[in-house]
Amino acid sequence: MRYLYLLICLLGCYTLSAQSKDDSAGKEALEFKLHPNPALENVIYIETSDKSPKTIMIFDLFGKVVIERRTTTNSLSIDQLVPGVYMVQIRQKDLVATKKLVVR
After folding, report:
1. DSSP codes joined into one string, 31-57
2. CA nearest to 44, candidates 96, 90, 9, 95
């Protein structure tokens, strides 16, 4: 009887894993360059391979959005940021990427 339950469990796990699909398979990841990092000036440069408009969001360590801009240029003014560590999230078309930014 135990073997029957074990067999049913194994078959159930197999069918569930066969039905699940990986949503990230076949998708291209957004790559971007963020420089200078650490930032010493009031401007950072964000370069992507695609020249279409991008949404840039900068979060503090508490998850609060401190800067949100939609732009087609590569430069972003960060003069209102105090020194610290931030997360930069770029959205372009259906792709999203995140990197760490240090402001000194």
Report:
1. -EEEESSSB-SSEEEEEES--S-EEEE
2. 90
Q: Using CA atoms, how far apart are residues 22 and 101, in angstroms rounded to an integer?
A: 30
Quick one: CA torsion of 76, 44, 64, 71, rounded to 10 degrees?
Answer: 30
State pTM to two decimals.
0.70
Q: What is the pLDDT of residue 51?
A: 86
Q: Which residue stretches of the chain are H helix?
A: 2-19
- 6-16, pLDDT tens digit by residue? 556 555 555 44
Delineate the domains of the chain, giving CATH numbers in brackets.
Answer: 29-103 (2.60.40.3080)
What average pLDDT does the chain have?
A: 81
Contact 90, 97 (CB under 8 A): yes
Our CA angle for 46, 37, 103, nearest 5°, is 105
> Parallel, antiparallel, or unpaired for β 43-48 and 54-59?
unpaired
